[in-house]
């Protein structure tokens, strides 16, 4: 008889211990009975680190994340992320009206802001190989970059609302002005106030400093920078960055 | 005979058309034959938007994202994201040695930087209900917030390396100093230079401005702020933000 009762007791104690142990577990992070399994991903953490400006100065996408970044860029999540940024900007624009002196301005970066280089990076393992300036120049000279549709929508809304739009790009003034203006025109980016490119005086200067200097000149001319959108933190940092800045996703490369 | 040949021809033409159509499709973003399906998520886009400082001034987590955020916080991805931030800081520290004048400083925020409030927010639908200052004060008075282990590791490494650590928090000096110092002590945050809390003079001031003022005072005292870590952009923006800033994830609430 005792041989039978002991296992039953042990079983009951186990159940009781289990029930009791759930009470503190309910309050312990990491042991919380969450309703769905959530699979952790180092590559997602890395990508969020890039967007939050924690991960900097990387030369290539980590090798184990190349396929992840490819899926991210082409599988829809990148477009979803861009969409949420533009949605936030539209909500911000709903709250403000530009004054009628023509001095309310917005700044746009060009590469991977107005124009997409995803087709180019598709041949560069989505950032899995180091940046190759000559090869990128050949690509840019072709003037075949497609518009990022959601950004084009924003651009048109800003012009319709009466903002002045300035495009500021690190692309070289001397070699790439013609192909860039043609590319922008063909993709529907018409009516901007000025396309500011990197002239020989600014060669070798970091993007953040170059772009700050250009914005400073606009502010000195009396423009009020109401917003500033780019895919790199170097588009958005430094002096005269604007009343609000918006970071578009780009886990493929880092421009200091 | 013709009746038999026509379907064969049509079939061959279809195959040829299909083969030809794959060439441009290979180069079209969105039609790229990516190796794995990637499921898009609005809530992931929203969360990345918070981390990138695009999504601001939100009062609650969007209702459709409450379960997503719960899974994110408790399912491991949050811990993974924190881990990557700390990894980046360790890599940064490997490159620098503090000077021996004792003036190299690091700034830490307290809530959801040193100490976790996930247990508290577990009862607040992980940010799905509006912030309740009275209820949060009761929680903070209990002094029961657990350390975020990876941040504690960073904290210890900084002290060992010879940095001075300053904790700057928006918690109220008068009502919460005792419970906060006890909580920090119990969780292993010992040896900091100063715990700077919000005294009555700064009540009602935005966190970014309050924290900037406190950092400015440290810089005026001769400290060089080598790094600054917090879970809110308002911890990291404004004057004297530090040589590098690090944003810890927090999609549960927004402090302006």
Automatic annotation (TrEMBL), chains A, B:
NCBIfam families: plant-AP (TIGR01675)
PANTHER family the record matches: ACID PHOSPHATASE-LIKE PROTEIN, HAD SUPERFAMILY, SUBFAMILY IIIB ACID PHOSPHATASE
Full protein name: Acid phosphatase
Keyword Transmembrane helix attached: no
Family that this chain belongs to: Belongs to the APS1/VSP family.
Pfam family, one: Acid_phosphat_B
Keywords of this entry: Glycoprotein, Signal
Protein source organism: Asparagus officinalis (Garden asparagus)
